[in-house]
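From the methods appendix. Each design record in this collection lists the tokenized structure first, followed by the designed amino acid sequence. Records were kept in a plain field format so they could be parsed without special tools. The example shown here is representative of the layout used throughout.

RECORD:
FOLD TOKENS (732 positions):
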């Protein structure tokens, strides 16, 4: 059949549409959209690290127009754009039904980091990834929410490993023009500029908007000519610099963030502080009320009614504390706008308000000036109530007003393309779910389906998905990871010139039980724990019939030498010990590497020093890919594990001393590995299928995947914290 050429009007529509699509990271969780960019330049897709904006800059207008004369391709683009428009314009959302008032007065979600996608590396770890997933799920639900963070133009560091196996940090400049972000303009079409008082200066900043589906996230940027260099560099790096930089970054985020929203005419109903970094926003809200004539106590009370706070860690160093001198210095100008003695402000950040030597703690400020506070898992809630009990001396421990909402992940965003295609094909084959038989579900239907317990109940049913199909999927994903690792290691080792030669195409065994560990190398996460039983582990990796192997990755904080020593140790083992060939370390752990690992590994290992892993989320990403967790009963896993859906290391308890705990956990880990994990994985029937193993995967899909989603999490935030509380403002 002859195709009519596209008219120039149609061409313009499609090219404009594609440019808009590239600047809304919705495309990262729509497989059809992603494949359009991928197809435009397969090589660019790899080299530009999956950057849709950069691909559109790479492909000339002329090429794009010619490519769109391919009727099949044009039809796909049209379809994707239709779904995108449908998504943006959808009226009957969960948010419209359950939280209509938040559409006019949204939730303002403040976070020092947001992890959206590998091309915008402005997150250091799980906290940022969680914030990104929160925004994506809020968008999917049609919830009124705006995000606020900083635009770190050098982002978080890129990791390489030097010839001493020591982590080196590299920073590259991010170019907004090449990223899915747009300048925030005023009504005259000029860049919107706001000010915030920091130290003795007025610091100017502008902002960028990242479109996260329907949710805007604003990135504040102080890199302006009129600012002194050290103020311009406040938005240089994620958690960069010393505590002076840190307090100033936090003033920009909290105070500047409120000012930006006011300048944009956004009047939030709720300010959600994701971690204490943003807690200075409470002082700005108080200042506004004082300026409008309220008294200090009344202003604090009103502010409290607008704010909620999520605490994310029981690790001491995770709670920012600033000395009275530093507060004095950083607030030199701002404090003059709060017409009470500064001592009264300092009291807000102290456990003992009248102890003038006590440092100012951002978590204390947030707790004192919020209407409700929560931790991120049940155990973390208990630990947090204990930790902050002294702030509520007249309350018994169980009544300390810190509840919990267990974290979740943006499921569709974390699914690897292979798996999105797999589930979508299965859905359309069966003609189940929202789609009529034989037709793929539309994007919104499919997104809703994939989040539903009903879908995962069906997925876990052998009548829907046979053991053979599931095992074939596992094999495919494991091979994809191994080939990814081989490619990465080839590049990694090329940059070094040591004479040690590894045959990359034979590295790792596609048939072996593959155990993954990928996360920040904070020492409490104990990356090297499993290698404490070194000789035993070597024996397991070299077993001819039941081999195991390891894929590790993770960054240590630039100033964490202990974490860097862990990395050094593991890389040393991977290169120079008997584990060589059975253990690899992938450099530069980020969202992309994480996705490869959580999808390809058979077992996701998590062995933090309990109870320091407040929730953990990386293990939640394994389930939809058929991966199983092997984890200490800490954070989310303590709630998720039921004896049939993965593996537990030790009990729902921990020893008092760190040494004893490490010793017990190491022994328990080895025991579960040899008595449960390995036998189950290698127990094959006459067809070569590990039926019992697959049964565990089914249990994980049924019981974990739909439960630990960001959709469930955001709904809980809405129902319990975002919507107006009773006049007492009773927190959970
Ligand atoms: C999911 C994720 C995390 C969080 O992992 P935890 O196991 O919870 O520490 C950190 N970094 C990246 C890149 C992730 O994708």
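DESIGN:
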């Amino acid at each position: 059949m002859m195709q009519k050429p596209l008219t120039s009007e149609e061409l313009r529509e499609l090219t404009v549409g594609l440019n808009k699509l590239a600047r809304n990271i919705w495309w990262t969780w729509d497989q059809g959209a992603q494949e359009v960019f991928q197809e435009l330049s397969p090589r660019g897709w790899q080299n530009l690290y999956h950057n849709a904006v950069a691909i559109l800059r790479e492909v000339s207008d002329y090429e794009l127009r010619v490519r769109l004369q391919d009727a099949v391709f044009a039809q796909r683009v049209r379809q994707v754009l239709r779904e995108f428009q449908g998504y943006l314009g959808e009226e009957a959302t969960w948010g419209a039904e359950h939280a209509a008032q938040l559409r006019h007065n949204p939730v303002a979600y403040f976070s020092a980091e947001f992890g959206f996608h590998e091309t915008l590396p402005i997150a250091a770890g799980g906290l940022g990834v969680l914030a990104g997933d929160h925004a994506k799920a809020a968008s999917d639900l049609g919830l009124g929410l705006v995000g606020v963070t900083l635009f770190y133009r050098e982002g978080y560091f890129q990791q390489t490993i030097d010839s001493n196996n020591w982590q080196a940090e590299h920073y590259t400049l991010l170019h907004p023009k090449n990223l899915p972000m747009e300048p925030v303009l005023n009504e005259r079409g000029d860049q919107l500029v706001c000010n915030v008082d920091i130290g003795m200066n007025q610091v100017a900043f502008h902002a960028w908007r990242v479109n996260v589906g329907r949710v805007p996230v604003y990135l504040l940027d102080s890199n302006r000519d009129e600012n002194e260099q050290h103020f311009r560099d406040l938005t240089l790096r994620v958690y960069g610099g010393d505590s002076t930089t840190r307090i100033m970054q936090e003033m920009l985020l909290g105070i500047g963030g409120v000012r930006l929203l006011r300048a944009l005419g956004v009047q939030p109903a709720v300010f959600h502080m994701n971690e204490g970094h943003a807690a200075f926003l409470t002082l700005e809200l108080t200042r506004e009320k004082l300026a409008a004539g309220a008294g200090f106590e009344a202003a604090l009370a009103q502010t409290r009614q607008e704010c909620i706070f999520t605490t994310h860690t029981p690790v001491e160093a995770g709670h920012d504390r600033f000395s009275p001198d530093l507060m004095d210095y950083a607030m030199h100008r701002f404090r003059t706008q709060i017409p009470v003695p500064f001592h009264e402000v300092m009291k807000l950040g102290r456990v003992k308000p009248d102890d003038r030597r006590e440092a100012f703690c951002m978590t204390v400020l947030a707790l004192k000036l919020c209407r409700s506070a929560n931790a991120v898992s049940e155990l973390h809630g208990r630990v947090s109530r204990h930790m902050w009990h002294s702030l509520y001396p007249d309350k018994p421990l169980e009544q300390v007003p810190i509840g919990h909402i267990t974290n979740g992940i943006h499921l569709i965003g974390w699914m690897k393309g292979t798996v999105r295609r797999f589930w979508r094909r299965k859905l359309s084959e069966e003609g189940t779910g929202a789609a009529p038989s034989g037709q793929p579900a539309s994007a919104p239907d499919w997104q809703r389906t994939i989040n539903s317990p009903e879908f995962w109940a069906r997925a876990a049913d052998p009548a829907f998905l046979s053991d053979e199909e599931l095992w074939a999927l596992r094999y495919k994903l494991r091979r994809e990871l191994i080939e990814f690792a081989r490619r990465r290691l080839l590049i990694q080792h090329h940059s070094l010139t040591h004479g040690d030669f590894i045959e990359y195409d034979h590295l790792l065994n596609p048939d072996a039980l593959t155990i993954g560990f990928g996360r920040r190398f904070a020492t409490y996460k104990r990356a090297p724990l499993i290698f404490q039983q070194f000789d035993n582990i070597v024996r397991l990796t070299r077993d001819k019939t039941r081999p195991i192997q390891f894929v590790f990755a993770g960054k240590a904080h630039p100033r964490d030498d202990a974490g860097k020593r862990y990395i050094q140790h593991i890389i040393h083992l991977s290169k120079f010990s008997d584990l060589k060939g059975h253990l690899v370390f992938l450099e530069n752990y980020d969202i992309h590497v994480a996705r490869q690992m959580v999808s390809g590994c058979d077992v996701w290992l998590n062995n933090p020093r309990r109870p320091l892993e407040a929730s953990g989320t990386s293990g939640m990403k394994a389930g939809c890919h058929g991966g199983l967790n092997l984890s200490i009963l800490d954070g989310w896993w303590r709630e998720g594990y039921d004896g049939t859906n993965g593996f537990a290391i030790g009990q729902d308890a921990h020893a008092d001393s760190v040494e004893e705990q490490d010793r017990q956990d190491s022994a328990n880990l080895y025991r579960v590995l040899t008595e449960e994990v390995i036998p189950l994985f290698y127990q094959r029937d006459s067809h070569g299928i590990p039926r019992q193993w697959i049964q565990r995967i089914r249990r994980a899909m049924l019981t974990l995947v739909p439960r630990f989603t960001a959709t469930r999490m955001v709904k809980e935030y809405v129902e319990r914290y975002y919507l107006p509380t009773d006049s007492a403002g009773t927190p959970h």
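APPENDIX NOTE: The chain has three domains: 8-89, 110-404, 473-709.
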